[in-house]
Structures are given as structure tokens and as C-alpha cells.
Amino acid sequence: MGMSDSGKAEWLTTRVDNLANWARKNSLWPMPFGTACCGIELMSVLASRHDLARFGAEAIRFSPRQSDLLLVAGRISIKMMPVLTRIYEQMPEPKWIISMGACASTGGVFNTYSVIQGIDQFLPVDVYLPGCPPRPEAIIDGLIKIQQIISEDSLSHYKVDESSEAVAP
Amino acid sequence: MLPADQIRTVMHDQFQAGFLEVTEFRGMTTIHVKGKIVLETLRMLKSDPRFACNFLADLTAVDHLEKGGHARFSVVYHLLNQHDGLRIVLQAWVDEELPVLDSANELWRTADWQEREVYDLFGIRFTGHPDLRRILNPDDFKYHPLRKDYPLEGRGERSDFPVVARTVGSKWSDRGRTFE
Amino acid sequence: MTLEAQQLSTDKMVLNFGPSHPATHGTLRILMELDGERITAVTPEIGYLHSGFEKLGEHLDYNQYITITDRMNYLSPLCNNVAYALAVERLLDLEVPKRAQYIRVLMCEFSRIADHLLCIGMQAVDVGAFTAFLYGFRMREKIYDLFELVCGSRLTTSYTRVGGMMRDMTDESISLALRLLDEIPGSLDEIDKLLSHNRIWLDRTRGVTPISPDQAISYGLTGPLARAAGVEYDIREKEPYSSYADFDFDVIIGKEGDVYDRYMVRLYECWESLKICRQVIEKMPEGPVNIDSDSKAILPPMDEVFNSIEGLIYHFEVTMENRGFEPAVGDSYVPTESPNGELGFYIVSDGRREPYRVRTRTPSLINYSIFQEVMPGNMISDTVAVLGSMNIIAGELDR
Predict the structure, then answer these.
(1) CA pseudo-torsion sign C210, C215, C221, C227
(2) Considering Cα of B136, then C369, then C397, then C355, what sign does the dihedral take?
(3) Neighbours of chain A (3+ CB pairs under 8 A)
(4) Residue B140 maps to which CATH number?
(5) From the list A81, A114, A161, which residue is nearest B161 (CB)?
(6) Within a domain: residue B83?
(7) Which of C46, C23, C18 is nearest to C399 (CA)?
(8) List of chain C residues whose C-beta atoms are within 8 Å of the C-beta of residue A77
């Protein structure tokens, strides 16, 4: 693309941004962290009727190191929270989180001793999906919201702070 | 299965001091005994042909702190005679000071996990259990949450985790934040 | 054994499986001790989805807790609703009308088919056969449509109420149910053709972790697991609840208790469920689905509440504290046959509006305890096949 020849960094950066965003948003690799009922609805989205492949996000990866979208589907208990944090830290940048359903977002009906009252207390959530569980259409809507976020992104934001802790390999 | 008054006689003859009472409610017969004879009673219910309860359907406990009863805790055994499809309930009562019972693990292996669950949620210990440790809550959990004096929202366990901040990220979702 | 083989290091290796693993369908963790590729010991760790259901039940009144029971076994929530409603009705000594009982049976049997289809499908995915999952799920989506039409929600149905149902089934939903009864056999046939005589499927499932009847009884197994092992016990037949005695069906019994038998029992139970569904629709009586609201035990219908002063007062008396709604002091337990096995709620009442204690006897927890007994000696790749055949639902396992 002649990046080195032109010397006009401003102009080129925008184009690379667009290219990178286009590629990223249309080939999201989700890591489904399905713990409870929402996980079953997540399966519905992947099965034939709703077919998440239409949005380029059907490449489900169960290894956090290969994925860039964490789909937290279901309630997170106090025993599970350290695991979730660890999985988030293992994902490579750039990464996004969808907090699916009332339980992951706020604790939902489970105002009890062992359910985390919203994972956003401890993790940076990008999109919240309401519903208990959200309908498959809502999950697709959430994915489109993530695609919007990505399309407004810029590579210039990814200046990794040297002092911050390195991402776990 | 015997009717309630005959069960009362049988139980009284066999375990004079340990036997408390037999109650009936909505067609369910419950035998109440003191905790120290629970294993003998279970063995009798399993082997005696008049009961022949070959199946331990459920094992749980109730904290009677607010309701009142023979003691603070009762451990509830739901027994089933699979041949006739008849059920009987055994309640073993234990005190708060010494919540210890004999394990039913030697009679039914299903007691293994269910006794662990009772220990985890109520703090009742079972002697003779092969591996008595917490099953549902994390190992470092300090309380027994189904006891009545433990609050529903817990004692702060659910908000005690490290916060992971966003190191890099998109402009859209972090409007107003700096990326340094 | 040659000299070189003896000199090789034979240290045991410990492998951590889960808690986030594609084959766990939820959150299980298994610590496996391996000798090469053979398992020598397993230690299942559970509790990763412990949500305090039983504690929560002590703070919600009898009708409110029905919504919580949905979230327990989320593959077949209607069976949970029915089991809970039955236990509360026994405590309050209520008898729901015949039509409500029949609707409960119909919905339970559709749930059972949906549950078995997903279980078989996921088991097939785990051993590498993706197509069966898609076939099963296509039919499951249609059953979801029926649930949505009947109770307004796909997954979290909350269809029962203490003393009846949330609402009656309309003619439209009955005709959809009839249409489903014609479509489901095709789907079952497809799965049957894909798997039952499939060489790979047979190799992966036959003779893997057989369970003897004595083991099954000692470990408290119920449901398809126990019946695959040859234990002839079906609560629908032996202790009929909710008018199951009116219908004619066979109990499917396996012989070996291995993974293949569990699959077969599940598949054939779907056929029996279809049989029951058809009989229910044929015999469906007319009439109300709720007990009389004068009994002051159930909520009156909404149009009465909104349009008449008596209805409003009844509603007020049932929902407000200290307004006359007093359950008897005592305890009740009603066993039901959920798709996984015996499901029952043990409810203790001290006369207040909320239950004093709600214990759930869940099949998943008790069925899963045999896992550590049967796994040693098997190959590591059998783990997922066995887990799939046990159909462990984390929400029910950990509550």
C-alpha cells in the first residue's frame, strides 16, 4: 500500500484504521463463558435458526488466547470470579466483553451471598444485554453494538503502557 | 410399610432413649430420633423387611433456630422402598454445641457428597466420612451460609475481588477516559 | 516388558479439566490423575455456579419462588415449575383441577423431549458429530415456539402457579402442539439414523463406564442413568403425580448401563413422551385451570383484580403481609420424574408467608457423584462422552 513512501502519517493511519476495523469487526472470535441459562440461549444463536455465522462470529474458540470477544453468559459465583478474571487477562488485545443477561450484568434475581452483583465491578464491560435470558435477537443486536464500537476504534489508542503489567502469555 | 402407630411401637421397643416421636403430615410419615442413634436407625430401616428402604433419595438438614424443635439442627433422610414405592422420612436432631453425626456412607455411597453439602451449608460434621470438606463454597469460605443467622446478602464475600482496569481500548466505550 | 520400557519414567500426571471447558456445558472442574492416556483417579470439583437458591427461597413467598425454579434446570424449566408447585400444593392441601394437571403433564413431556434432544445433541458434539446437534436443536427451537406461545417465554417459563397455571392453553397452542407431535418423529428418526448404528458412535459409547444396578442404587441414581443400568423405577409409573396414572406408556430399561444404553434410553423415552402427549391432548378435559380463588390460597385472575372490588381485595389479602394467608406448619415433599431423574422440593413451613426452608433434591448432584467411581481405568477421551451422557446441568448441580 505504499505506507513507507508517502510519509503522510495522518492520512495513512486513518486508512489502516479502517482496514483493521473492517477486518476485526467482521471476524470476531468469541470465547463463550456460558455458565447458566444464558449459555443455552447462546447455543440457540449458534444453531441453525439464528445462525451467528451471518455476522462473522461463528468461530467459537474455547481458548481465551485465540479469541477477542468474551461473552459472559450466566451468573458468576464467588468461586468462578477468579477464573473469569484469569481468562480475561489471558486474552490478547484488542478485546471486548459482552455481559449477557441480567445475572452477569447486575446479579439479576440472585441477590445472594455467592453471586457477583455485576461483573462490571471488576471487569471492563463494553456491552450489556438485558433480559433473563436475552432472546437470540438481542444477542445478535449486542454483537452489532460491539461491531459499532470496533468501527469507531483507532489504532492510535493501542499504546500499551510500559508500566502496566504485561498480559499473561 | 407399617402404619404410624406401629412404627412408634417398633421404634420405641428397639431404641428406648434415642427415639423421640413419629409424626404424620399430608401423608408423609416422619420418624424423629436423637442424633447419636441415627446410624443404627438407618441400618434397621434398610435391613428390616417391614421397611426395606433400599434407596436413600435425599439427605439434607434444617436449621431450627427460629422455628424451634427438639434441638437446633435436624438432618433429614428421605428413604424410599423401591419395591413398593413407599417413602419414609427420618429426622435426626443434633445440638448446636456438638453438631456431629455418624456418616451414612457405609450404607449408601450417595451419602458421600450429600453429607459434604450439609457440612458446607450447615456446619454439621459426620464422623466416618472419607473426605469431609466443602463442596459448593470455596475452600476459604468462613461461614455456613444456610444457617439462619447468616444474612442472605452474605458478609461481603461477593465484593472482595481485584478490579481489572482497561489498559487499552476503544474511544467509543471509554469516552472521557484517558489512555495513558 | 522390555528393559527400555521399564526404565521409562512412569510418573503420574495431573490434568486439570475445566472449569471453563467446552464439554462441561456449564461449569465443572475435574482433576484427573493420568497414567499415560489412562485415567487412574478423578476428583470432581463442583460449586462454580453456586447461587444460593435455597437461601433465597427462605426470603421469597411461595409464588415468587416459582420464577427462581426456572433457573435451576434450564434445559427443562417447566418440570421444575411443576415439581415446586406440587410440593407447595401438598403443603397447602390443594388439589388443582383436572385440566391443569393435564396441561402440566403435556408441558412436562414436551420439556422432556426438548431436554433429551439437547442432551443427545451435545453428547454427539462432544464426541465429534456436529450434525446431530443441529438436527436436535432445530426441533428444540420449534418446541421453544410452543412454550413461547403458551407462557410467553422461551426458556424461563414460570408457567405454574400455586393452585393452578399462569394461564390456560388456547386452541392455537393445542393445534401447534399437535403439529409438533407430527414433526418430532421425523427428527428423532434422523438422529436415530445418524447415530444408533454409526460405527464411530458405537466405538465411542459401547462398553464405556458400565454401571451395575447395585451401584446405581447405592449411589442414588435416578432417571435415564438408573434405567439404563437396569433399575426399573420410574416415578411417573410407581408414584404417579399430576394424573400420570391416566396415561399409558412404557418404561424404557437398559441392560449394560454404559454410555450407549443411556443414549438409547433417552431416545426411546422421547417416543414414550410423544405417546403421552397424544393421549393428553385426546383426553384433555374442559374447565378451569385454577382452583377457586375464594380459597384465599392463590392469586385471583387479573381481570377480576382490575375490574372488581372483590377481586382487588382478594389480591390484596393474598399478597400483603398478615392478611390471612397462613400455610399450615409442617413439611412436604413430592417426588417427580424430571428428564434427569428424581426431582423433588422439600418444603418446611413455619406458618409464615415465606417457606422456612426449601431444599431441592436435584438429580444432577446425586447422579454426578458416581463419576469418580466409574471413571478410573478409562481413556481420557472418554471423559467427555461420559459427561455428555450424564447430562449434568450446572444450575441444578450447584444451585
Answers:
(1) positive
(2) negative
(3) B, C
(4) 3.30.460.80
(5) A81
(6) yes
(7) C46
(8) 47-51, 398
Q: Give the A-side interface with B, CB within 8 Å.
A: 78-79, 81-82, 85, 88-89, 93-94, 96, 111-117, 121-124, 126, 148-150, 152-154, 157-161, 164
In CATH, which superfamily holds the domain spanning C52-294+325-396?
Answer: Cytochrome-c3 Hydrogenase, chain B (1.10.645.10)
Identify the domain containing residue B56 by its residue range: 4-156
Does a structural domain hold residue B54?
Answer: yes
- Give the number of B-C residue pairs with CB atoms closer than 8 Å: 101
Q: B125 lies in a domain?
A: yes
CB–CB contact C138 A49 (8 Å): yes
CATH number of A29-152: 3.40.50.12280
Within a domain: residue B165?
Answer: no
Minimum Cα–Cα distance from C348: chain B residue:
B62
How many domains in chain B? 1
- Indicate yes or no: CB of A109 within 8 angstroms of CB of C75: no
**pTM over cut 0.95:** no
Contact (Cβ atoms closer than 8 angstroms) between residue B58 and residue B114: yes
**What is the least distance, in Å, from the CA of C284 to any CA of chain A?**
31
For residues C323 and B134, give the distance between their C-alpha atoms in angstroms, rounded to a whole number: 41
Retrieve residue A150's grid coordinates.
470496533
Query: What DSSP line would sit under C209-260, residue for residue?
Result: S---HHHHHHTT--HHHHHHTT----HHHHS--TTGGGS-------SS-SHH
Tell me, yes or no, if B137 comes closer than 8 A to chain A by beta carbon: yes
Q: Which three cell numbers stand for residue C354?
A: 415465606
In chain C, the residue whose alpha carbon lies closest to the alpha carbon of A84 is C20
Chain C residue closest in CA terms to A80 = C48
Rounded Cα distance, A120 and A142, in Å: 16
> What residue in B sits closest to C329 (Cα-Cα)?
B25
Each of the 399 residues of chain C gets a pLDDT tens digit; together they read 566 656 666 778 888 887 877 766 667 888 888 888 888 889 888 888 888 888 888 888 888 888 888 888 888 888 999 999 999 888 888 888 889 999 999 999 999 999 998 888 888 888 888 888 888 888 888 898 899 898 888 888 888 888 888 888 888 989 999 999 999 998 889 888 888 888 888 888 888 888 899 888 899 899 898 999 988 888 888 888 888 888 888 898 988 888 999 999 999 999 999 999 999 999 888 888 888 766 666 777 777 788 888 888 877 777 776 665 678 888 899 999 999 889 999 999 888 888 899 999 989 889 888 888 888 888 888 888 888 888 888 888 888
Examine the predicted complex and report whether its ipTM is higher than 0.95.
Answer: no
Q: Are strands B125-127 and B100-102 parallel, antiparallel or unpaired?
A: parallel
